[in-house]
Design goal:
With 212 residues, this protein is of the alpha/beta class. It has a single domain, classed as Alpha/Beta hydrolase fold, catalytic domain (Rossmann fold). The chain contains 8 helices and 6 strands, in the order E-E-H-E-H-E-H-H-H-H-E-E-H-H. A 6-stranded parallel β-sheet has the order 2-1-3-4-5-6, with helices on both faces.
Length: 212
């Protein structure tokens, strides 16, 4: 059984550096280039070339990675999909997400605006200086352009057609994707970046989800 890990938007494989999946065969997928007007389904199609579809596998995605994982599941037919801090569709959107979609605020994302607003991004969750530096380094590596295009794809998403098994791990203090829907595993006090700030607990719940 291979476990494929998809990071969130503006993040790369380093997002999983604090997740312990010893004993599991894991593959950390990388985001392809995002073309203007792309969709989460088209991103999933591009990534599908990296997945061994003929073998049993599980898809695990954080935030946008969870949304893409659901689109990818339609193509690769995994045993299950595990969502961490993610949505299953617009029906779960917060008022902030709905406003962002209507006003297309993502169009204002540039390297300058990303840098200028970084100090107020505490809505992602409280973190130490090393974690904050890692998040910034990943965002810069992914580029503001990809963050802008990817956010647009998220806010145009109509939801996934995947009808197979889904396991959800979510923090009850997530300000980006507030937990207003049923989940399988709740991380008390977990914020949107709990894969970094609560790595040990998330690892335990993820191992449980993978083994069930």
């Amino acid at each position: 059984m291979t476990v494929y890990l998809l990071p969130g938007i503006g993040c790369d494989h380093r997002l999983f550096d604090r997740i312990d999946l010893a004993g599991f065969d894991t593959v950390k997928l990388r985001w392809p280039d995002f073309q203007p007007g792309c969709t989460l389904a088209s991103i999933a199609q591009a990534i599908s070339q990296e997945v061994q579809k003929d073998g049993p596998h599980i898809l695990v995605g954080v935030s946008m990675g969870g949304m893409v994982a659901q689109e990818l599941a339609v193509i690769t037919k995994p045993v299950k999909v595990v969502l961490i801090s993610s949505w299953t569709g617009p029906k779960e959107w917060s008022l902030l997400a709905r406003a962002g979609s209507s006003l297309q605020l993502y169009r204002s994302i540039t390297h300058f605006t990303m840098w200028a607003t970084w100090p107020i991004k505490r809505m992602l969750g409280q973190r130490d200086r090393a974690t904050d530096r890692l998040l910034w380094e990943m965002a810069c590596a992914e580029t503001a352009r990809k963050v802008r295009i990817g956010t647009g794809a998220i806010l145009r998403w109509k939801g996934s057609l995947w009808k197979g098994p889904v396991v959800r791990i979510h923090g009850d203090s997530d300000s980006v994707i507030p937990m207003r829907f049923p989940v399988d595993h709740v991380v008390r006090g977990g914020a949107h970046i709990m894969v970094l700030t609560r790595g040990e607990e998330v690892s335990r719940l993820l191992r449980e989800a993978l083994s069930a």
